[in-house]
Predict the structure.
Amino acid sequence: MARSCLSGLAIPRSVTVCRVIIDPASPDHPYVQLAALLRSRIEAGEITSVLPSLTEITEETGLATGTVRRAIALLIEEGLVYTVPGRGTFLRR
C-alpha cells in the first residue's frame, strides 16, 4: 500500500494530488488496508479534526463507496472517529 495524500484538507475535486494504491496481492481486504492508512494518518497528526468526505476518499482511492464505508466503520468500532449524519466523520480527540 502506497502512502496517501488524504489530508483532511479541502481540496477541489478537480485536483488530484496523488492516488492511494491498495495492494491487490495483500492478504488484507481493501477496506482493512484503507482503515490502516487512515489510522496511520490520524496517529501521525496528518488528519487532525475531520476525515475527508466519503466522496473524496472514494475518488482518491478508486474504491467502491461500500468499501470506504466499511473502512470508516472499522475506525468507528475502534473508537477513533465518530460520524455526524450530514456533517462528516470527526476524530475523537
